[in-house]
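Interim report, section 4.2 (structural modelling).
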Amino acid sequence: MAASLQTIAIRKEYPGTVALDGVSVRFDGGKVHALLGKNGAGKSTLVKILAGTLPPTSGAILVNGREVLLRSAQDAFHQGIATVYQELSLIPGLTIAENILLGRLPRKHGVIAWPEVYRRAAAVLAEMHVTLDVRQQVSELGVAKQQIVEIAKAMSFHPAVLILDEPTSALAHHETEELFALIRKLAGQGVAVIYITHRLQELPQIADTITVLRDGRLIGVVEMSETTPQMIVRMIFGAIVQKQRPADLPVGAEPVLEARRLGQRGRFREVNFTLRKGEVLGIAGMLGAGRTELLRALFAAEPFDEGELWVEGRPVRAPGPVVMKRLGLAFTPEDRKQHGLVQMLSTRANLCLASLTLFTTRNRERPVAQRLVDQLAIMVSDIEQPVAALSGGNQQKVVIGKWLNTRPRVILFDEPTRGIDVQAKQQIFQIMWDLSRQGVSSIFVSSELEELIEVCHRILIMKRGRIIAELRPEETTADELYVRCMET
Amino acid sequence: MSKLREMMRRSMMEIILLTLCAVLAFKANGFFTTGNLLNVLRNVSMQGVIAFGMTMVIIAGEIDLSVGSAVAFAGCLTAWVTGKLAWPMPMAVAAAAATSLAAGSGIGLLTGYLRVRFRVPTFITTLAWLTVLRGAAELVTNGFPLTPFPPWYNFFGGGYLAGIPFPSIVFVVVFFVIQFLMNYTAFGRAIYAIGGNAEAARLSGIRVNFVKIAVMGIVGVLAALSGIMQSSQIMSGNATTATGWELDVISAVIIGGTSLMGGSGRVWGTLIGVVFLGVLVNGMTLLNISEYWQHVVRGGLILVAVLLNMAPTEKRFSYT
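Predicted structure of the assembly:
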């Protein structure tokens, strides 16, 4: 008998919002069910409820047709639901066997029975038809292999349902094959696999059915064989209201930044483009397409192996963040909390981080910081308070603000709108446009492709580390852009 | 009301220090005399000079465990070079002191270079120096104190200028220089940024490697300076001096409120920490408290100081 997991009218309310609104869905054994949706669609809330770590406000969960109560992760485990999260939870210094059997190492007379440990762990791997040396230390494995060990750990409980939360997000494309083969094998053994991903291009390879959530509601369940990329995009994003950029953003003729056959081993290659004065250039692509890596290389935060960078008609020698800053580049990283700001320092200190001049004092910094706070409408009660107290949108504005002090000619924005509210997003677009009017160019990377159409002069599509197309926002629609990014 | 409490919290160490002084003034005979206070000041100056450099190092997220051995090594090297040079004494001494300062900064710069180029933690490198430099001091002196110094050399460690011990003048000058560096220069602001989040600092176009190498060089040069004054005070190069100083110096920095995690701390706090430890030791000695108890008290104090510093930090971050 194949297993099944069913939810009936699952609802989850938070003060002020409904995260899940009456979701009834059934996941059958023997199949891989892709669970899709935008950020904030309710995927992770549903996963947490199925994993027992979050109680639903109302609704029921049925395993094999029998209602179960999941009050903790242990409960979910006992009911045969195992979850593998995006962040790996392996302990690098221990062996594969120890990681698989962590917390329940077999013992004899109170002492760990090592032969038994290795035997059992090997049995788990053998069942999955995986060949790995169970005595090997996990830190010696690549990320893909670690992901497999993580799944083996979950499978050692013989679950009926295996939930995989973006297992490929940390993997390069060629590393996913092995993982997909394993997932298909497990489904073949009757396990119901729920597979969450942002990489829509993986779907044809891995999914049997597709379940889409949007704004906390179930939009639909379709068989993979009966769908098209257009349909999936339409289900995920709904009808997209497309806005247009202001008309008064001129692009100059002079090139300010050029990439000439830029390449970084295993990340991207043959990247060519020319950014012109005042231009806002968008880079579209799915997660893992190499956008972030490219942007980091443009700021020389990571060295590139091939090609050249040219700034204002001259090749860059000895690239590094210090040099790029001097040449007029600025970079707002994807992870603003960890890479953009020093959380323990004040808003003032962070706003002055990129522009420390030889002699600087708090009294001289304060008016500079205050001016930026006003200019960017940063909501802060006291600029001497740690920047950690600000909301995401305001933190992002601080990251942008710190670069405005350096009078940049090009700003590289990596996912500046992730996790911030609509109003703050519009303010950030406004900043980009204002900069464009002043002749400052931008490169804008976003996973929300309709944003690129709204903001940019020109959009490059990146896939598997290469730029495969260039188009003007006037010539395309968000639907089309999503489809082109996810096509294989 | 909350403002007053905030001020109290910020000046906790100052208040504790003043209280301690007040208690000692009544309880300990001879504490509150000019002679004794100048003596305390002289005693804390040698270590204090290094503590200011150590503050920079710890705020930058690094550590230097080798300063005690570096002091001994610098003293011995100064004595050895002075003895070797057949020049007129002032020139020989000057050349010897310059050699020691160069060696001290060179060792620090090398530590910094190993840190940024090969990612060797400064904890490890300076732990190695701790032993290596002590051994080097023994080698230079061949196990016996070297005494090549002319009588006037005693001025730098034991002399007075306008009634104030010379090392204390150095101590105050170094305080102002480091205070200025940390608060009024891009270099100092970069140290805070790097200790708070090195990657964010790097991506802001800050010269992280340069700054890390430089702070290690600075603490190295200050240890050598202290070693020269120390050799002047005892009028010899002695390989067995300054043992355990690294712990005293680090204690003073931590008691002064600098976080061992890096990113936060004040040079002024270190000044207070240094003076506090000096007064405490002096007071306990005047009160005839045994040296064994002194060790226990000083150790316990470090723990208490860290606990006092941790509590508010935790609260500050709870609302992020």
